[in-house]
Specification:
binds pyridoxal-5'-phosphate, 407 residues, globular, 13 strands, alpha/beta, four-stranded antiparallel beta sheet
Length: 407
Amino acid sequence: MTPDEARQLDAQDPLRTSRRAFDLPAGLIYLDGNSLGALPHRVRQVMADVIADEWGRDLIRSWNSHDWINLPLTTGDRIGSIIGAAPGQVICTDSTSVNLFKLLAAALQHQQGRSVILSQTDNFPTDLYMAEGLARLTGEAVRLTTVAAEALSQALSDDVAVLMLTHVNFRDGRIHDLPGLTRAAHDAGALVLWDLSHSAGVLPLALDEHQVDLAVGCGYKYLNGGPGAPAWLYVNHALQGRIHQPLSGWMGHARPFDFSPTYEPATGISRFLSGTPGILSMKALEAALDLYADVSIDAVRQKSMQLTGVFVRQVASLPGVTLASPEDPELRGSQVSLQHPDAYAIVQALIERGVIGDFREPDLMRFGFAPLYNSFEEVWTAAGILAEIIGSGSYREPRFQERRQVT
Ligand SMILES: *Cc1c(COP(=O)(O)O)cnc(C)c1O
């Protein structure tokens, strides 16, 4: 591909104008939106107003006058519209890790006589760690079983209570067959809990249509909610009212302002709240979600496949590099992972050249492509810089070997 061809793709891109909505530093090529989304201009303004008017001036009255009290629900519904969930099934709250715990515990309690959480060996670690913590809490009455991706269907025995999977694998970007595995789990009498952290905002999802039971996801990746943005959880209407989460805080009470001494869960999705929501960070996420108001997720997915495709074509045959992501764009999310024995140093050298990706042990370089703000031209340029760094061996300089705390 030539730079002209890349520019041509940009000129034809139906999403080309959405980049202007982001505050991206000049000269930087940001390919890490799968870890922390970029800052939308709108968020800057909204945060200034919320702080001045809602917190500063209206103070505690804002719980009513600015409807802070319903923000987890209204923000949840907006996320619902991006993931194929009708209103009243998604709530914005806590972190993905905490939400995993709440939903796993609720699922296990519901599935009397079944004690296994089935997952994939290379699932995102926090998903496995939260399941381990739940197992310990129950004195190992609940057990976590992990198998390789290919062995999942056969491992759905009749003691599996819940199949817990991440839709897009964080290491290699491979996509699971969500409808197929959901059906297989149901056929085996298990519930499904999908982690959509690397899917929401870049892949078309139809949670209601595919009868997903439970799901969780991040607010700070492709949804651009900012560092540590609140996460969200989905509970299908069919299960609501029948499952109970253990972190039964007052915000999940049927009538929090009765201040009753005993807990009575709210009837709808609100019972999955625990404590007081982080209003400032949720306001930032809410403002960022505005950018999805009039884009089609199908167009986002089209562009995502094209972006990863352009990158793969330019870099897959570089010396020492192996493509770790699926070759078929239909099978990969919005990221490309490359294996190289010196992956860490190469990523550091790229960062020095203004191309931001990240490194995952032991030898993976990860590049995330955010269709709302990444252009074909910058992807082409990033691939050229990567080729230069590998070709010249400049990454071998000692300063690129030094390990930082966050990789
Ligand atoms: C990013 C990510 C998380 C992060 O969980 P936090 O509680 O927000 O730290 C969880 N699961 C998956 C699959 C992720 O990609």
